[in-house]
Design brief:
Length: 156
């Protein structure tokens, strides 16, 4: 059996609705668990944070599977909005995408930072990929994957 083919493409403002739908499907069970699911609030929050210039759409075998935002900051990368539709989870696809992002950050010699809803199983996924807990806020935990030693921080 061949591995699924993963491709990235840039997002546009017109991708808001399909990306929002994937986000809601991915987060709803976890937000319901903590009593915080509200579809109107989910839409408003995503509208406030939707930045297509930083968002990569993820296609698997030619079909839309999810998205990830990976933005270079002053001294680190911020990873946000990493969502895969249910049909693409548990198949190693997320790990392959994470390996691509880690390689990009390592090439620049920079750490990766992200936030995760408290109690989310995503925290275990990130821990397997070298992320360590930094601090928490009322609803989220924040993690960082340190830069690999010996990488050039001045790389593009």
């Amino acid at each position: 059996m061949t591995e699924p083919r993963i491709a990235y493409r840039p997002a546009t403002a017109g991708d808001f609705e399909p990306v929002l739908a994937v986000r809601i499907r991915a987060l709803r069970p976890h937000l319901e668990r903590v009593g915080r699911f509200d579809p109107d609030r989910a839409r408003r929050y995503f509208a406030d944070t939707f930045a297509p210039e930083h968002l990569r759409l993820i296609d698997v075998d030619g079909g839309f599977a999810g998205c990830v935002s990976f933005r270079r900051e002053d001294g680190w990368f911020t990873l946000e909005h990493f969502y895969l539709d249910d049909a693409f989870q548990g198949r190693g696809i997320g790990g392959r995408i994470m390996a691509d992002l880690i390689a990009e950050a390592e090439g620049a010699g920079l750490p990766i930072r992200l936030g995760v809803l408290k109690g989310s199983p995503a925290a275990r996924f990130y821990a397997r990929h070298g992320f360590v807990w930094m601090y928490d806020e009322p609803f989220d935990d924040y993690y960082e994957r340190p830069a690999e030693r010996g990488q050039a921080a001045s790389a593009p």
